[in-house]
Amino acid sequence: MDKFFASNVFSKQRIFMVSGLVGCSLLLTACAGTMRISWPSLSPFNWFGSSLKVSDQGLGEISRQTNMTQSAIEQGLDGKYRLRSGMETKDGKLTSIIQGMEDNQVKLEFYGLDKGKVNRIDILDSNIKTVWGTKIGTPFSDLYDKAYGACQRSDDFSAQPTVICTAPQSQHVSYVFSGTWDGQKEFMPADDILKEWKVSKIIWKAS
Fold first, then answer.
1. Which residues of 88-107 are buried (b: 16+ CB within 10 A; e: fewer)?
2. Within 13 A of 50's CA, how many CA atoms are on the CB side?
3. Which of 84, 99, 100, 126 is the most buried (most CB within 10 A)?
């Protein structure tokens, strides 16, 4: 899977088009030209954690009806994250990808066809919960008694062993669990192993 972003295209074939707040002070005099400030992100109510929640419909107000554009996603996020956008090739198809950044770390990833709608959201921000209370770090044992019928082994064991489980409340939401396991990567870890694993990513899909 190759990702292409709009800066540094000659060296890494990656380009990120970063939103207008980058490199600018909150003081209007710090940046030349017109700067667009998201006032909701400056509200004291947003200083004490994220109000965004993952549900069967999507993330906050971002759903399958949201345009796969940086402006539409920024509005849905209330300006909380710095955004950068680019393209990704997957299974021979060209897909748009928009990342939500905070402290130079990727916290959110949005996927969808170019000029289409959002069809997948990857949540890596530990401050974001589902409407059912699940978040990054929630143990497997808090959600499942066994993996059978809900979980499958991830195809990507390159960094750390992972399994993906469908949320009990929604077919549109999945949890990626990571943990320690010394078994062969083609096998599913036993339930007594999985109970110690924790959510490392939350995924929402439109279908």
1. beeeeeebbbbbbbeeeeeb
2. 24
3. 100
CB atoms within 10 A of CB 28: 10
Please give the Cα distance from 54 to 61 (Å, whole number). 10
Residues 163 and 177: beta-carbon distance below 8 Å = yes
Structure tokens at 48: 């004490």
The DSSP line for 6-32 is SSSHHHHS---EE-TTTT--SSGGGSS
Start-to-end C-alpha separation, the chain: 21
Q: 86-121: per-residue pLDDT in tens?
A: 998 877 788 999 999 999 999 999 999 988 999 999
Q: How far is the CA of 94 from the CAs of 11, 103, 106, 116, 138, in angstroms? A: 20, 28, 21, 12, 33
Averaged pLDDT, 77-84: 93
Locate the domains of the chain by residue range: 51-205
Pairwise CA distance, residues 122 & 193, whole Å? 25
Give, in degrees to the nearest 5, the angle at Cα 196 between 193 and 202.
110
pLDDT of residue 93: 80
d(Cα 131, Cα 127) in Å, to the nearest integer?
13
Contact yes or no for 191/157 (Cβ under 8 A): no
Question: How, if at all, do strands 105-113 and 2-5 pair?
Answer: unpaired
Q: Is the pLDDT of residue 15 over 50?
A: no
pLDDT value of position 91: 76
